[in-house]
Automatic annotation (TrEMBL):
<dbReference type="InterPro" id="IPR002921">
    <property type="entry name" value="Fungal_lipase-type"/>
</dbReference>
<protein>
    <recommendedName>
        <fullName>Fungal lipase-type domain-containing protein</fullName>
    </recommendedName>
</protein>
<feature type="domain" description="Fungal lipase-type">
    <location>
        <begin position="230"/>
        <end position="378"/>
    </location>
</feature>
<dbReference type="InterPro" id="IPR044819">
    <property type="entry name" value="OBL-like"/>
</dbReference>
<dbReference type="Pfam" id="PF01764">
    <property type="entry name" value="Lipase_3"/>
</dbReference>
<feature type="region of interest" description="Disordered">
    <location>
        <begin position="1"/>
        <end position="22"/>
    </location>
</feature>
<dbReference type="InterPro" id="IPR029058">
    <property type="entry name" value="AB_hydrolase_fold"/>
</dbReference>
<feature type="compositionally biased region" description="Basic and acidic residues">
    <location>
        <begin position="1"/>
        <end position="11"/>
    </location>
</feature>
Length: 478
């Protein structure tokens, strides 16, 4: 009798699990930025709900709790003293001073010396390793790795590293990007896109929603003999303060997409008086760069740029634009979460559920204890989009979901000892100078959630893994 009752109840339980309305989060968790009706409820109950929500977030890892306290305290202090605006205005001066200190100038063909950005000043190596050539790495579409039937299907270590170089390079000014792409890589530079000059707050078109923060955006369009590369830049360190302090992380339902972060959507579709709509400009530039429409397109970006690459790819597919069929792969490095589970489901169905292995694959590449990969929190109904590639603090590149999950726990709870390990390892790494080590110590004390977020860490570890797995050495300097 008991066995029969269990059998009868099982389908009902499965049905309940499949019903999202029955699994809906409490209102105070689902929409924490809105006031929750608490009339007639004791204040103790309301406080208990908030306490439960904070405790759930803190339990996710030691890093989350540590970063939430330290980062938010410092951000509030910087804003109160108006130092964030001061840092942004002082950025060019700081870049020149650091270039003078380290001697890391970019020398143009005409003899001019240009300083690197704050992001790359301590690691301005944009050389192509001898394991591949820039002209041929994207030949024939995305390569299929040896584990074609497993979680690594469609992933290519050489493609991943090359696109990580591109996402690192796009943090530089237009002159340095063009010189590196054409004079040093032997490729073609087509366009440099930008929206506005500062971050701003604005209503978002196409479905409404008011973004608390619409970041200024930069992107570059390059091409090799075999493919086009569209790479979006992330936030500059001084502007990242504004991005992290945006109080309301809101989503709005978008037709055919699901619910999407308003700030990311606004970055692509805000009609800027200075530069127009970024999405439309990029589509036009791609059509001009390849009139035949035959070259595959690779999308990449870091941080905010990774979110924009993911969103761009899905919008193009949702609108059934011809360019969507040409997207061979999307590599998002350190990507924040872009939308809800419906958006993630649609994105996976578009780019990771094709019978044609090696094409239309999308990867979210995460490193160590990078907190940006975990934001906005899952409890706000956001979801991860794309197959995860995880780079451990020890330099391993993992694609197996079980291994990835295990290492997320190791990196989160073992953040301090692993970070000390990286500091010591940097002493013996010729690619890591003394100033980069000082950066690491500074971030550990001030913004611990960003210690593993640096573009150079992603590119450097992917370079080492590529060279190690190929059993060779990098020549550098190309």
């Amino acid at each position: 009798m008991l066995q029969s009752e269990r059998t009868e109840k099982a389908p009902a339980a499965d049905a309940a699990a499949e019903d999202p309305e029955k699994q809906a989060l409490p209102q105070i968790i689902a929409r924490p930025w809105q006031e929750v009706e608490s009339a007639g409820q004791p204040i103790v109950q309301t406080a208990a709900r908030w306490q439960s929500r904070v405790a759930a977030y803190a339990r996710s890892s030691f890093l989350s709790a540590y970063a939430a306290i330290v980062d938010n305290t410092l951000v509030a202090l910087l804003q109160a003293l108006r130092l964030d605006d001061l840092f942004r205005r002082a950025t060019p001066w700081l870049e020149d001073r650091l270039a003078s200190l380290t001697g890391s100038w970019h020398v143009m063909a005409d003899g001019r010396k240009l300083s690197y950005s704050l992001v790359n000043n301590t690691s301005p190596d944009f050389s192509i390793p001898r394991q591949y050539s820039a002209a041929e790495v994207l030949a024939g579409g995305a390569e299929v790795s040896g584990d074609a039937a497993g979680p690594a299907a469609g992933y290519s270590p050489s493609v991943a590293h090359f696109l990580s170089l591109c996402m690192k390079l796009v943090y530089e000014g237009e002159d340095i990007i063009q010189d590196t792409v054409e004079a040093r890589w032997g490729l073609r530079f087509h366009n440099y896109f930008h929206t506005g000059t500062d971050s701003f707050t604005v209503a978002v078109p196409e479905g409404g929603g008011a973004a608390a923060f619409v970041p200024r955006t930069r992107a570059a369009l390059l091409s090799s003999p075999h493919a086009l590369i569209l790479v979006f830049r992330g936030s500059e360190p001084t502007n990242l303060i504004n991005l992290r302090s945006s109080g309301r992380i809101s989503m709005t339902e978008r037709k055919g997409l699901g619910r999407v972060h308003d700030g990311f959507f606004g970055a692509l579709f805000h009609d800027d008086e200075e530069s127009g709509v970024l999405f439309d400009d990029v589509i036009s530039a791609i059509e001009i760069a390849d009139p035949s429409g035959k070259k595959p397109l690779y999308l990449a970006g870091h941080s905010l740029g990774a979110a924009l690459a993911i969103l761009f790819a899905q919008v193009a597919a949702c609108r059934e634009l011809p360019i969507a069929d040409r997207i061979a792969a999307v590599y998002g490095f350190a990507p924040p979460r872009v939308g809800d589970k419906e958006f993630a489901r649609r994105f996976a169905a578009t780019y990771n559920a094709t019978a044609s292995l090696g094409r239309r694959h999308a990867f979210r590449v995460c490193h160590g204890a990078d907190i940006i990969c975990h934001l906005p929190p899952l409890m706000l109904q956001y979801a991860d989009a794309g197959k995860e590639v995880f780079i451990t603090s020890t330099g391993r590149v993992l694609l197996n979901p079980k291994e990835v999950k295990r290492w997320h726990n190791i990196e989160g709870w073992g953040f301090i000892p692993l970070y000390l390990y990286k500091l010591l390892a940097g002493v013996f790494d010729r690619r890591e100078g003394a100033l980069r080590s000082l950066y690491r110590v500074f971030l550990l004390v001030t913004f611990p959630g960003l210690t593993d977020h640096w573009p150079a860490d992603y590119e450097g570890k992917l370079r080492k893994a590529l060279i190690r797995d190929a059993g060779g050495k990098s020549t550098g300097g190309l």
